[in-house]
Design brief:
FeS-contain_CDGSH-typ; 2Fe-2S; mainly beta; Alpha-Beta Plaits; 2 domains; 9 strands
Length: about 220
């Protein structure tokens, strides 16, 4: 993939980056009050029209990690106090936390440590393991209920390894809370295998269906 897919918007105190390969157009940026992001304007993002702290706050709303920043005065984006995997109604898995990504294919901007990603659950994305909104055309349906509770954990933060297993599920290893689409903290534990083929009968968890349907992870 071309480096031109990553767009740089420099500011005096803070720079903003947009990786269009990861963007699923949720709209948290353009719907924010103010003129940091204005559709149709050139440049679309202007970090100098908004206070630095406000820029940070708006960029950190992006659930896919397509937006990021480099603060020339302050610290890097902090890790959230909770590692969470949010099961989106008929959509992807939003992972937030101190994420260490593995097996992410050709997306070098997301290699290493990240804070926010949107991961495919339907099996149809052309940008696996990331969501590209293919669930809509594929007619993927899962309302985001979580029936299991997990083994429990005394902590919710710390490093969380997120690995896309070859032609298999997502392996999440580390302190983790899985939130149902209702926002309920449904599952707590330190290791989970989550479906990314779209065929599991026990969503969001893997039940081995990827072998039956011949799922290919790339």
């Amino acid at each position: 993939m071309s480096e031109r897919s990553v767009h740089h918007f420099p500011g005096e105190e803070i720079d903003v980056y947009w990786d269009e390969r990861l963007c699923i157009h949720i709209g948290e940026c353009v719907r924010a009050k103010g003129e940091l992001f204005v559709s149709g304007r050139t440049p679309w993002c202007d970090p100098d029209v908004t206070e630095r702290e406000r820029v940070r706050e708006i960029v950190e709303r992006c659930p896919s990690g397509a937006l990021s920043y480099v603060d020339k005065i302050g610290a890097p984006e902090p890790a959230p106090g909770e590692n969470a995997a949010v099961v989106v109604y008929n959509g992807p898995l939003y992972c937030h936390g101190e994420l260490a990504l593995e097996g992410v294919g050709e997306v070098p901007a997301q290699a290493g440590t990240s804070r926010r990603v949107a991961l495919c659950r339907c099996g149809a994305s052309a940008n696996k393991p990331f969501c590209d909104n293919s669930h809509r055309a594929a007619g993927f349906e899962d309302f985001g209920a979580v029936g299991e509770q997990g083994r429990g954990t005394f902590a919710a933060d710390g490093p969380l390894a997120v690995r896309a297993l070859p032609d298999g599920p997502l392996e999440l290893a580390g302190n983790l809370v899985i939130r149902a689409a209702s926002a309920r903290a449904a599952w707590r534990g330190d290791k989970a295998y989550l479906c990314r083929c779209g065929a599991s009968a026990n969503k969001p968890f893997c039940d081995g269906s990827h072998q039956r349907v011949g799922f290919k992870g790339d």
